[in-house]
Amino acid sequence: MLRYFALRLAQIGPVVLVVSFMVFSMTLLLPGDPTLSMLGEGATTAQRQALRTELGLDLPLPVQYGRWVGRIVTGDFGRSLRNRQPIVDMLAERIPVTLQLTILSMLVSILIGVPAGIVAAVWRNSWADIGVTFVAMFSMAIPPFWAGMLLIMLVCIQLGWLPPSGYAAFSDAPLQSLRMMILPTLTLGAAMAGLVMRQTRASMLEVMSADYVRTARAKGAREARVILHHGLPNAFIPVLTVVGLQFGTLLGGAVITESIFSLPGLGSMVIDAIFNRDFPAVQGAILVIVTGVLLLNAIIDVVYYLVDKRIAR
């Protein structure tokens, strides 16, 4: 298993290198001059040029990229052009917020989508199947930003049950932190729950018609045992694939969701940095997000290896 995991990690390196060059190049193509944001409208051309020289923005692109990669390898992501704060410190503050939102959203999608998919598959073509499928399709069709605003209007403004925005660190106040994350988690996890439900339903329908399931029933096994012991474990591998692939989508959705609910995560950091032409912050945050997605996919491959022994052959 260690050799398999090492091979998967070795494949990540070239991908990260290519992505890092794309991220670095595309951020430099963003409209606007970062020196203008730092010095203000009253700065002279000479002052702006001096700042560009100090920041190395007047160097050729390959030279800038080489210096940037060299610093990244040593753990130095540079400093923010806006507040001169080290990017590493900014990432350390914001990564836990985005991870908490993403993990909770994945848990919600699994806890809702898997049982709903089982119900829809077991009672195929029934009213339960039709109702669950309708809700799943509806949740997948609603954009996260619209769902977030609807939840704020209903739960926060009309009912007053939860605050519309804000964040509390889980390490400082666990219950308050979870309470503040309810609406963002539902906003981000609802669409994925619908996708998980659809995949679970399709996988369960395929598995429940297999020979070993019919054999288990012929031996007199209870239906609950047939479903949970024989059906679900074999149907869960495709569901796990969907969950892994959707991790990147969740991180992308976190950019909008964090802005709606004023969460100090990587998503809001990227948006603020783009508006302020803070190129090092944009580059550092996106590189961390991409690396996180690649690492999670490698971990899921290892889980495949453990669950499905056919991969080890």
Could you characterize the architecture of this molecule?
The structure is a single chain. The chain is mostly helical and 313 residues long. The chain has 2 domains: 2-73, no CATH class; 90-312, Orthogonal Bundle (MetI-like fold). It is built from 13 helices and no strands. The longest helix has 38 residues, at 223-260. The protein is globular, with a radius of gyration of 24 Å. The termini are close together. The mean pLDDT is 80.
Radius of gyration: 24 Å
Task: Sketch the major β-sheet.
Answer: none
Determine the number of helices (DSSP H or I, runs of at least 4 residues).
13
Q: Taking all residues together, what is the mean pLDDT?
A: 80
CATH topology of the largest domain: MetI-like fold
Broad shape: globular
Which percent bin holds the helix content?
A: over 70%
Q: β content, as a range?
A: under 5%
| Parts with pLDDT < 50 across at least 5 consecutive residues | none
Regarding quaternary structure, what we see is single chain
Number of domains: 2
Q: Could you name the CATH class of the largest domain?
A: Mainly Alpha
CATH architecture of the largest domain: Orthogonal Bundle
CATH superfamily of the largest domain: MetI-like
